[in-house]
Amino acid sequence: MAHQSNFDEIYSFLKEKFEGESEYLQAVHEVLEDIVPISNAHDDYKAFDIVRRICLPERVIYFTVSWMNSKGEIEVNQGWRVQHNSAMGPYKGGLRFHPTVNLSVLKFLAFEQCFKNALTGLPMGGGKGGSDFNPKGRTDRDIMLFCQSFMRELQRHIGANTDVPAGDINVGAREIGYLYGEYRRLNNRFEGVLTGKGLEFGGSYVRTEATGFGLIYFLEAVCKHQDTYIDGKTIAVSGAGNVALHAALKATEKGGKVVTLSNSRGLLHNEKGLNHTAIKWAIENHASRNNILKDMAENDMGDWIDNKKPWHIACDVALPCATQNELTEDDARALLDNGCSMVLEGANMPCTNKAQALFIEEKITYVPGKASNAGGVALSGLEMGQNAMFNQREADVLDEQLYSIMTSIHERCVSEGKTEGDFINYMKGANIAAFRRLADAMVAQGV
Ligand SMILES: NC(=O)C1=CN([C@@H]2O[C@H](COP(=O)(O)OP(=O)(O)OC[C@H]3O[C@@H](n4cnc5c(N)ncnc54)[C@H](O)[C@@H]3O)[C@@H](O)[C@H]2O)C=CC1
Ligand SMILES: O=C(O)CCC(=O)C(=O)O
């Protein structure tokens, strides 16, 4: 029986079932608005009740990580893996270690990941996982001990053809190495079960850089579409981690003037624009420093401002690359008042619903993370391909592939996001383009 989707009915059902999961409900709300009309215009999508099914995770795994730290003390953390949808391939998506991690955050990330992965055009389903473990201020040995204990639980739920985790906030090359080592020891298998691995043990060139570089390739595609260039544009970046720093590096290479970086404690501001050498230095050293931005300010690379976000600094382009809901309605207003005309998300859901709505209402370019930060997972997909073939491809070939994937995602968003006049609604375009791919895969495979 065909099932006509009704936004209010589905959203009320989810709200009632998952009360308090605010991030998950926020992410679903944004997508539902765009996909309900598409589903209702398509008999197969209605017949298979795709919209309701696409919002719900196929499986949620919870485990307790009890571990002994290097002082011999027992610590207890919570761990999760949300396996949202596998219609397009193995569950794929990162692991986050942060005290703010909870089920709602991981469910929103897993939901978004399915749409993002669909946009890449590669055969990947979507998932996300992590722990409330806080690695800040921990010794290297404690990080290793925690990663090993976390993997002892996770390993029974993942596999190269089942579920392939990667890094996310606070999970970088070091953590992936420890996690991979434990998986290999326990399973006696050398396989592509994680991506973001070291180059010596199955990792791919360009994976580390891919999210930030991909974001700038998407920006380049937007500029081309609008007959303009990155060269000469003033760019405000938030965050100072993997995504932010690689985006800043590529933006400066393209002639952009990157005037900010930030973290949860404040802002580094350089009116003249950070230079390439300073950003490279930050990339090499950020993992080992307590506050790399303060160190940069002390070395005359800019001014440090306590407890400020970048969004009150005048810029042409804003790239939020830190965390969810970091850019509020007030921040959006400040950006608009200062003449910002492009906002591309490097982080996952960094703009609140109200900030997004304001950008779209004012018809400035706003690109959601599921499109503009898809470069990281796309390169992970290419890493999985290399692992399956037991080979390693050259950096320049992979960089070209990344460029071409980001350009294709841009084209998909434009073709589905055209509105009256010249305005492209990238949010709508990304949601609909991803939904069609995912829904077609689900219909083809039956219930
Ligand atoms: N690493 C990857 O390949 C991908 C990451 N992302 C997303 O990009 C964002 C950043 O991730 P990564 O750079 O990998 O993590 P990271 O751990 O390397 O860096 C995170 C940065 O954000 C800052 N930060 C955290 N909370 C903050 C707050 N409340 N206010 C200001 N700054 C804050 C941290 O100080 C740090 O500089 C996250 O939303 C992540 O989900 C998205 C796609 C792929
Ligand atoms: O590389 C991956 O598998 C996941 C990257 C990620 O976590 C993301 O796209 O948010």
Automatic annotation (TrEMBL):
Glutamate/phenylalanine/leucine/valine/L-tryptophan dehydrogenase C-terminal domain location: 204-446
Role, per record: Catalyzes the reversible oxidative deamination of glutamate to alpha-ketoglutarate and ammonia.
SUPFAM superfamilies: Aminoacid dehydrogenase-like, N-terminal domain (SSF53223), NAD(P)-binding Rossmann-fold domains (SSF51735)
PROSITE patterns reported in the protein's UniProt record: GLFV_DEHYDROGENASE
Quaternary state and interactors: Homohexamer.
UniProt record similarity statement: Belongs to the Glu/Leu/Phe/Val dehydrogenases family.
Protein name from the UniProt record: Glutamate dehydrogenase
Organism annotation: Alteromonas gracilis
UniProtKB keywords: Oxidoreductase
Catalytic activity: L-glutamate + NADP(+) + H2O = 2-oxoglutarate + NH4(+) + NADPH + H(+)
